[in-house]
Prior knowledge:
Distance between the termini: 39 Å
Largest sheet: 7 strands, parallel
Number of domains: 4
Strand order of the largest sheet: 11-12-13-14-15-16-17
Bound molecules: 2'-deoxyguanosine-5'-triphosphate, calcium ion
Amino acid sequence: xxxxxxxxxxxxxxxxxxxxxxxxxxxxxxxxxxxxxxxxxxxxxxxxxxxxxxxxxxxxxxxxxxxxxxxxxxxxxxxxxxxxxxxxxxxxxxxxxxxxxxxxxxxxxxxxxxxxxxxxxxxxxxxxxxxxxxxxxxxxxxxxxxxxxxxxxxxxxxxxxxxxxxxxxxxxxxxxxxxxxxxxxxxxxxxxxxxxxxxxxxxxxxxxxxxxxxxxxxxxxxxxxxxxxxxxxxxxxxxxxxxxxxxxxxxxxxxxxxxxxxxxxxxxxxxxxxxxxxxxxxxxxxxxxxxxxxxxxxxxxxxxxxxxxxxxxxxxxxxxxxxxxxxxxxxxxxxxxxxxxxxxxxxxxxxxxxxxxxxxxxxxxxxxxxxxxxxxxxxxxxxxxxxxxxxxxxxxxxxxxxxxxxxxxxxxxxxxxxxxxxxxxxxxxxxxxxxxxxxxxxxxxxxxxxxxxxxxxxxxxxxxxxxxxxxxxxxxxxxxxxxxxxxxxxxxxxxxxxxxxxxxxxxxxxxxxxxxxxxxxxxxxxxxxxxxxxxxxxxxxxxxxxxxxxxxxxxxxxxxxxxxxxxxxxxxxxxxxxxxx
Length: 581
Ligand code: DGT
Ligand code: CA
Ligand code: CA
């Protein structure tokens, strides 16, 4: 996939910056019209059916948009060009320290943040925690005991996720920074290592490796990157910075002959490295970030392949490097032939403007064809899910007619009729069989009652799968990073039940979800349950998410044959039909 797209700022991110500006302005009691202008702009940009950055990067100017004047258009151009807004950077600097953090806490808007600041001098999450624990917050006007409890819950969730970041954010920041490093002539190779290279679902910090004869110039160029907020450490061959986005980046500079050894070391995981070192010791070798050594003699290290070869191993794909059996498998020549992005033939979970998507049916179809997909399944939300504009029975039937009409116009992609039907609290589905039976596939999803006991949640999912029409269980853990952790559920039982019922599990590729988890993919593979990697696309750009799903599937050791939608439509059709009645 093209690099530019990865780095490009998308509409949602532009909108998020405008929302943050509005939040700080509101906290500061700025003019209400000014605040409203930013909130409006956020909404307008977020709802556009095309990406602002795509237009601007072609050198074209934005078409006239009502509500976005010259000043806002200029700010948009700046965000697209730099990934940042100097106005937001300035507002954040000038605001009371800790305010930005407070505003980002779910459930704490600018009004409440202001009351907390004015009444209790709360300026940090730590203050907030103390005041909530002392019961001081419930007494504030407009707060109350329930809000206080909710704040404590939000703080607890925040502590769990605060030091981790979405893979999509980390990837964009890492690519931009790598491009910055490559500008320096002295730099030979630049590689992203660490958890980002292993494609973990969330990223703690970015690890970047560069090769150069001499480290100090590279380090200087690195710390003077425009997005550097703080330099935490700086030495002759290594440095650590914190970016304005809050992401920390470690850079190591090594000589070219150590590139492979350093890349192996900094890719990790730590557990994988420890296992490699043990293997080396058994062979009388020493391995570190500079190379593989026999006594004082360096015998390998310029490429990763050379490092693994001295240990009698083939090169191991980064996604497998978690010490989950990959070394034994490599030794026994049993490494899986991991699925690749190009193996996907279609996408089985796609929304349109009929529910909460941002592009029309024909736009989603055209974009799928442009991405080289052979088929997509249109799967809107069902009536129960009002906030996502869930479809009533009549609306679903109308959409099916619309699909029939589009099919007649030969849209260049096979369009399947599906639904993302809500799984109700008791495991019943939100539509009855008379509707479901008319579809090509049924995706069931939980969007409510996340707090059920493990036993009840597990039963609920299994009951849902028992329906005569049930094809795929969507985002099986319900995790939504960073706002919501996975609910309690016995995934082993769910997977075994899927096997018994002959249905499939989704690996939802949205960066916030990446659900099924990697180890659960391994379990599903063992049980012989096929996984559907889906974009859960809500806009034409979301097909790009599929590659995060593929990376997660690779972490779960999945091969092409383990994934449902690696089959061409002809082979897929009978598999779907078998789940429908
Ligand atoms: P993260 O940042 O929490 O998402 O996860 P990683 O895996 O990127 O961890 P990080 O950034 O602390 O370290 C990057 C790599 O450096 C790690 O995957 C393996 C290597 N490494 C770090 N510390 C150690 C260590 O104490 N021993 C060994 N053998 N390797 C280490
Ligand atoms: Ca890291
Ligand atoms: Ca690190």
